[in-house]
Task: structure prediction
Amino acid sequence: MKLNPKFLHHKMDDQSLVVPTAEAGFSGLVQGNKTVGVIVDCLQHDTTEEDIIDVLCERFDGDRSDIEADVADVISKLKNIGAIDD
Result:
């Protein structure tokens, strides 16, 4: 899976924004914390959910099952707005 090229990723301090282009078919912004930023960074190239979880486990302290749930939630929301290409 990979970030749809009709969406752009922008970082400001500890905030992460996913911004649709005019062709995206979604209007609005997706705002998240630096964890969401790492997830979207991983989606800049073709990756898997498991690879994203591994990256987050390396960068942040936390229970793997909590990280898995958070990644699944973010990916689901991004897929619902068409921001992820499978």
